[in-house]
Amino acid sequence: MSKETKEMYLVVGGSGLLGRHIVEQLRDRGDSVSVLDLVQRHDDVPFYSGDISEEDVALSALKTSGATCVIHTASPHATTAPPALFWKVNVEGTNAVIAACLASGVKKLIYTSSSGVVFTGSDLNGIDESFPYPTKPMDVYMETKIRAEKAVIAANGKNELLTAIIRPSGIFGSPGDRQLMVGLYNIYDRGRTGVQIGNNKNLTDWTYVTNVADAHVLAADKLSTPADPPVAGEIFYITNDEPWPFWDFTNGIWDRLDAIYPGRRVKKKPFIIPRALGIVMGAVSELIAWVLGKKPTFTRFSVIFSCTARWHNIQKAKRALGYRPRVRLADGMDRLVDWWKEQEEGKTKSNLAT
């Protein structure tokens, strides 16, 4: 693409938390950007509705929008969606997006994966992109993300299409965090913040959504050939570059909620459940849920997730993309809880008005 040709962006999954932040960054710097998603939450950019597992849907959106660069962020929620949906969106959908890019002559494709694709339940301390895929993925979500990654990398160089993969870790932020913040608030609201699983010595990466969006935009800008260091055909871990003990982060959110809801809870020294006991309790919870035909709320995976070190080396992203996290972790936590406060105050005013 010549310097005179203006990039046209299509953000797949642009109504979600990350997708929306990418859209806003591109829009705010004057780029032409459209969204392809199932649900329309904003009307400030062109929107195309459809299921990406249907190739004609993606192809139609690409041709109508005139997109030259696709940023694919769409994926079901990792802990709540059924396995069949992971295969449909992460595998079939990604293959359909790739096929549509090749058919329409799109030159750039950036795919949002997950740092969890290499996680097997063992500690990951400062790993980089050379760390291999597991022989047996942790769950169906990770298995389908691996399939998608391999397809995206395999497509690099076909019909002049250049591809890159972003692997963020622990995305959170505002506005629009309907996953992490809701879960942490529900624990807080039910008075269950006094339990800690594990010794809290495991460092964990969390990444503010603005920083993850920055990485996608940087990758799109630098996805050209030749480039040194290369971006095309590469995978990049993205984090806040400041790993915290797992429970320090969750307690930090709950402490900030105390300022919003004074007197809601009495903060106490946590009751610590050893990891091994937690895994047994998770297995029992899963069994009971299976017998009752319900979805378990406490699982072995949740225990492993909260007790295992998971932090990553992001030097590759710094060198190749010029990535630097511009929102620090504590500042991001402040922003998230401030946004939550605004949402709750808005609900209260609405209820009073009716």
The percent of residues in helical segments reads: 40-55%
Strand runs, count: 15
* CATH C-level name of one domain: Alpha Beta
Stretches where pLDDT is under 50 for at least 5 consecutive residues are none
The biggest sheet amounts to: 7 strands, parallel
* Total helical elements: 11
Please identify which CATH superfamily of one domain we are dealing with. Answer: NAD(P)-binding Rossmann-like Domain
Could you tell me the strand content as a percent range? 15-25%
CATH topology of one domain: Rossmann fold
Shape type: globular
Average pLDDT figure: 92
**Reading side by side through the largest sheet, how are the strands ordered?**
3-2-1-4-5-7-12
Detailed description of the structure:
The protein contains 11 helices and 15 strands. The protein is of the alpha/beta class and 354 residues long. It has a domain of 225 residues: Rossmann fold (3-Layer(aba) Sandwich), CATH 3.40.50. Strands 3-2-1-4-5-7-12 form a 7-stranded parallel β-sheet, with helices on both faces. A two-stranded parallel sheet has the order 6-15. It has a two-stranded parallel ribbon with strand order 8-11. Helix 1 crosses helix 6 and helix 3 packs parallel to helix 4. The radius of gyration is 21 Å and the shape is globular.
Give a nutshell description of this structure.
By secondary structure, this protein is α/β, with parallel strands linked by helices. It contains 11 helices and 15 strands. Helices cover 45% and strands 16% of the residues.
